């Protein structure tokens, strides 16, 4: 009588190692994509926040202009002269977060004012600039 010997078929050590390497490569590339997306999202959020701060400053200047307020006086009460630049510190949750730089200058023979607002994130991100001109 012949006895049939059943062979237990399984994965060899090499097959297991190759599978682990492939899974590791796929996992590493996936985590890289997730990290890059998260970093871009944070950067965009900071740019949007800086843009909103700059828009707020421009809107406040327009309001003061419409109220016939002397803009230089208003600037000196809301901004501090620091190394030749008018700066204001913006905070978020009480943490020093943005520098806001305001430049007011005469334009077109003193008939217009040019306003440039620069918002600089403290984490070294990109600055945001907004500018406008209006009649005196």
Automatic annotation (TrEMBL):
One of its GO terms (biological process) is protein secretion by the type II secretion system. It comes from the Bacteria. It holds the Pfam family N_methyl. It is found in: Cell inner membrane. Belongs to the GSP I family. Its main location: membrane. It comes from Desulfuribacillus stibiiarsenatis. One of its GO terms (cellular component) is type II protein secretion system complex. This is Prepilin-type N-terminal cleavage/methylation domain-containing protein. The chain crosses the membrane at residues 16-37. The keyword Ligase does not apply. It is a single-pass membrane protein. Keywords: Cell inner membrane, Cell membrane, Membrane, Methylation, Transmembrane, Transmembrane helix. The keyword Ribonucleoprotein does not apply.
């Amino acid at each position: 009588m012949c006895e049939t010997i059943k062979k237990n078929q399984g994965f060899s050590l090499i097959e297991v190692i190759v599978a682990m390497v492939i899974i590791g490569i796929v996992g590493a590339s996936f985590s890289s994509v997730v990290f890059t997306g998260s970093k871009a999202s944070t950067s965009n959020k900071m740019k949007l926040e800086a843009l909103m701060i700059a828009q707020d400053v421009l809107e406040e200047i327009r309001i003061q202009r419409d109220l016939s307020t002397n803009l230089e006086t208003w600037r000196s009460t809301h901004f501090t002269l620091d190394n030749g630049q008018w700066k204001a510190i913006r905070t978020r949750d009480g943490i020093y977060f943005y520098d806001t730089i305001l430049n007011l200058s005469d334009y077109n023979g003193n008939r217009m004012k040019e306003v440039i607002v620069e918002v600089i994130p403290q984490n070294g991100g990109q600055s945001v600039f907004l500018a406008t001109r209006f009649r005196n």
